[in-house]
Specification:
408 residues, alpha+beta, seven-stranded mixed beta sheet, four-stranded mixed beta sheet, 7 helices, globular
């Protein structure tokens, strides 16, 4: 991307003079749009961001007319699993912008970025509030090439979506907003939700006590439980990032007896499109481990990708590589084939609300022996080998986070 931007930008800079403006400028400021969404309806929503490449002092730069669309390169939408984006579009236009500072008015040219989304809920039945965040990361690369000091962060347009299961719930919420806490109707509506809030907090409190009483004292686990209790959150997100260092091809050679011998490589098993079952297994194992502390109806791990990493997040990066181990089928007198062993190097970063609280690194290996059905394919054999290595990850995490005492 940088190379492409360099080719366009250097002949495209126009330097403009700026008069000093007040600190209340709306330029290069993230914006938030409040949205009300009801039941299973779809809704078109629109926001805007005013972008200007300020270079400091009283100057800014702009792009040559006609290439503004590079600002939209690789723009992204971050949406929670409670919402879905059914359609999206974004435009960028150069426009005049006036700012007032006392009696003085300053005019400059800014790029107005306008994202439009069509959104809906994912079959939710309870009211909730969630953010959809739209980002335009290309602006930072462009600004760097232009030597601009602002914007200094990726521009964001946020849509704060308040979902209501029915129009009755929507109007109750509006009445609360209009008449304040003193209204009797607020009390009538709040009693059930307050009761549920107290129940969930009590479950988390008991979970913390159970963990400590069982010998656990890991600060990360305690921080996760405390955060979820206070934030009334249920989901812990897990993301995966793989680097495959396995040989692509099988190896065939003559053994000591002069017979042909083939060593099979598991490379294809660890292509990204083949990993869903193994990665889902890790999520299931994490849920099983933590269910020893607190039931999965209160909180649970799910596989998800949230770019802003809000909430509790387990980022799991792993490298799969060969070892010197070879697996062979038992009971065969003269072997003609074997299966190359693997090792998995894990790098796990645990974050809470975008702050890293723990980094864990270790390697895991398959079991020394494992069973497969008669007639299993090479893929099924390697899947079983990988499964034992991935389960080893969970055992190591149990020990690292001091959940192991709960299994004794």
């Amino acid at each position: 991307m940088l190379k492409q931007i360099k080719l366009w930008i250097f002949p495209s800079i126009t330097v403009m003079m700026l008069i000093a403006v007040s600190g209340c400028s709306k330029v290069n400021r993230n914006t938030t749009v409040d949205i009300e969404l009801v039941s299973n309806e779809s809704k078109a929503v629109e926001g805007s961001f005013l972008l200007r490449f300020d270079t400091g002092g009283d100057r800014y730069v702009k792009l040559k007319p006609g290439i503004e669309k590079i600002i939209l390169n690789d723009w992204e939408v971050d949406v929670s699993n409670k919402l879905k984006v059914k359609g999206r579009n974004a435009t960028v236009n150069l426009t005049q912008y006036e700012e007032k500072n006392g009696n003085q008015t300053t005019t400059s040219q800014v790029y107005e970025i306008t994202p439009t989304l069509i959104i809906a809920a994912n079959q939710e039945t309870k009211n909730f509030k969630e953010y959809i965040v739209v980002r335009f990361p290309a602006t930072l690369a462009i600004g760097k090439e232009l030597k601009a000091s602002s914007p200094s962060a990726v521009p964001e347009v946020r849509f704060q979506v308040a979902y209501y299961s029915s129009y009755g719930q929507l109007w109750f919420a509006r009445i609360i907003h209009w008449f304040g806490i003193g209204a009797i109707i607020i009390l009538l509506i709040s009693i059930p939700s307050l009761s549920e809030y107290v129940k969930v907090r009590e479950k988390f409190k008991k979970a913390i006590e159970k963990y400590v009483e069982s010998g656990g004292s890991d600060r990360t686990v305690l921080a996760i439980l405390t955060y979820l209790k206070n934030a009334q959150k249920r989901e812990l997100y897990v993301s995966f990032n793989l680097r495959n260092e396995l040989d692509r091809d099988d190896i065939t050679f003559l053994n000591d007896e002069g017979s042909q011998f083939t060593l099979f490589s598991p490379y294809k098993n660890f292509l990204s499109e083949n990993l869903d079952n193994l990665e889902n297994l890790i999520v299931q194992q994490l849920n099983h481990s933590f269910s020893q502390i607190i039931s999965n109806d209160v909180f649970f791990f799910i596989k998800g990708e949230l770019a802003n990493k809000r909430h509790v997040f387990f980022d799991i990066s792993y490298v799969v590589k060969h070892t010197e181990s070879t697996y062979a089928k038992q009971g065969i007198i003269q072997l003609s084939q074997g299966f190359r062993g693997i090792a998995v190097d894990w790098n796990i970063n645990i974050s809470i609300n975008q702050t890293s609280v723990r980094k864990i690194q270790f390697s895991s290996f398959p079991a020394d022996s494992f069973s497969v059905d008669e007639g299993s394919s090479n893929k099924e054999i390697f899947d079983k080998m990988a499964e034992t290595a991935f389960i080893d990850l969970n055992h190591r995490l149990q020990k690292e986070l001091q959940i192991q005492p709960l299994f004794q």
